């Protein structure tokens, strides 16, 4: 009698220099797609010594459902143990804003093989999905992502803190503290936009310190400013 196979899906997010989804190593934590390039490569390595993995990849617009304006090849393939293969990401040609970055997400789903000896056993099979930010970067943007991060403005009104990004790039926080208190639930600020979050009993002039994540997955220098009244 063949016993049932239990399948569990685990989603991981890339934060460090190299992301791991079980036996699959993803070569970066974010994808930067410069508009002047024909394609961008994302390296995957199977670190297993014996078992292959099945790899499925696609992009989405951020809602986890709508496919992004990129073609990923190969969309589905087998990666043998101790082998590396690159995914190739190509823009579909869909019109996108030219005065600021646009954000999408790259998804890499990895499905492990099952050893032949386990065919008749009750097996817990984990399917991993790694999700990375994919930034579409048009030509001719002003300054740099680090400049956008450095020039963020922080203000408050009626228990709300406003973060204003006047730059052309997304600012993704590595750390953010106000009066020494860590603010973990603020992820990023879109270009030419504001992010708002509640923070009661914050005094005008409170010290704000922050770092952003660079294109290479590490942190910028720490920046400091004062909280102003909006």
From TrEMBL:
The keyword tRNA processing does not apply. Keywords: Chaperone, Fimbrium biogenesis, Periplasm, Signal. Pfam families: PapD_C, PapD_N. It comes from the Bacteria. Coiled coil: none annotated. The keyword Ribosomal protein does not apply. Residues 23-142 form the Pili assembly chaperone N-terminal domain. Belongs to the periplasmic pilus chaperone family. This is Molecular chaperone. It comes from Citrobacter enshiensis.
């Amino acid at each position: 009698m063949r016993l049932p196979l239990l399948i569990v899906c685990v989603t991981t997010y890339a934060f460090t220099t190299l992301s791991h989804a079980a036996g699959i190593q993803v070569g970066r934590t974010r994808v930067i797609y410069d508009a002047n390039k024909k394609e961008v490569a994302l390296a995957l390595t199977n670190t297993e010594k014996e078992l292959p993995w099945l790899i499925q990849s696609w992009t989405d617009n951020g809602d986890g459902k709508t496919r992004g304006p990129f073609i990923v090849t190969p969309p589905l393939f087998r990666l043998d143990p101790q082998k590396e293969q690159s995914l190739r990401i190509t823009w579909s040609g869909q019109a996108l804003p030219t005065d600021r970055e646009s954000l999408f997400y790259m998804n890499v789903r990895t499905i492990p093989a099952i050893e032949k000896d386990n065919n008749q056993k009750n097996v817990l099979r984990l399917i991993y999905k790694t999700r990375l930010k994919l930034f579409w970067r048009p030509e001719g943007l002003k300054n740099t992502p680090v400049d956008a991060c450095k020039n963020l403005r922080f203000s408050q009104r009626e228990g709300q803190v406003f973060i204003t990004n006047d730059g052309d790039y997304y600012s993704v926080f590595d750390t953010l503290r106000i009066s020494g208190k860590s603010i973990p639930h603020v992820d990023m600020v879109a270009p030419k936009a504001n992010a708002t979050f509640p923070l009661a009993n914050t005094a005008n002039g409170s010290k704000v310190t922050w770092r952003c994540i660079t294109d290479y997955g590490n942190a910028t220098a720490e920046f400091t400013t004062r909280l102003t009244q909006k």
